[in-house]
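Me: I hope this is not a bother. Any chance you could explain this protein sequence and its structure tokens? It all follows right here:
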Amino acid sequence: MFSEELKKYNWESISQAINEKTSADVEQALSKRRLNIDDFMALVSPAAAPYLEEMARRSRDLTRMRFGKTMSMYIPMYITNSCTNACVYCGFNRHNRFERVILNPEQIEEECKAIKQLAPFDNLLIVTGENPYAAGVPYIEKALKVAGKYFNNLTIEVMPLSEEGYSKLVEAGLYGVVCFQETYNRENYKKYHPSGQKSDFEWRVNGFDRMGAAGVHKIGMGVLIGLEEWRTDVTMMAIHLEYLRKKYWKTRYSVNFPRMRPSEGGFQPNVVMSDRELAQLMFAFRLFDPDVDISISTRETPSFRNNIASLGATSMSAGSKTEPGGYKTYPQALEQFSVSDGRTPLEVAEALRKAGIEPVWKDWFNNPITS
């Protein structure tokens, strides 16, 4: 399990190594075709800031080589904000006083129909709060079967499950799983997740192994930018990705770097990442792993998303509602966070086309063309 592998790495030592990187280290990394973790640390270090244009150019070229001039489009569907955790930064925190919503199968179907009216999405991300009692595997399985009538590519962002749980959902039509570790800082993790299942660091970080063992086709990873020093956190994530690549080599992978957005509870980020730093991070990941899917959500502004679309991002959400039932059933329910890009899916698609990028609504890896 990765929790044992992670013990080989010291947070403070990695932070120091990143900050000690020089221009020579950055240039050496940029001279290579295949990068290691040490090279990745150079590219996310402060020393790499003057090389942003060169990193952008290389990231763009690698992205075009691997993915073409396309953008995979997806949309999230929140089906419950019921949660047993007390994450200090999240609007779904169980201590926040508001009416909890758990959509029934009929309401989930209405949400699916409403999404289909927005744009020809075929990639759906089903999102829940973490409530293993009211919204566990049986509930998620029912949701997948309902959504499967409308979407071919179903991904979930839910609480970490057992290997058996993931296997059961794969049988029910599950294609991918997205899970944010939030932070790899084991020492401070409990501070942000004081209670609930999510407070168990090992259970969460080893969830990715359980996904791989269960045969999940695509695994999405991420850290929440704003909790801890981001350069160290993303280096830990790169180490985790490299570990998963070697162990579960048949699986596809994606990465996401959500910056904290306002939510119920008023938690303020400990670290603020600039647009240039986020771009640097995305370029570094593209150079480190040319085949990884880099996703960008509506947390980011239209201008940033427009600019990054041709430089490294390969999948993008649009028209997102972050409250359960937000498309049809309960448009006024509490949202998990506020979005920055409020454009409609068709407006986002048009902006991509103007930039020479073709929005793709269907996942051809999951749905290959057959004769």
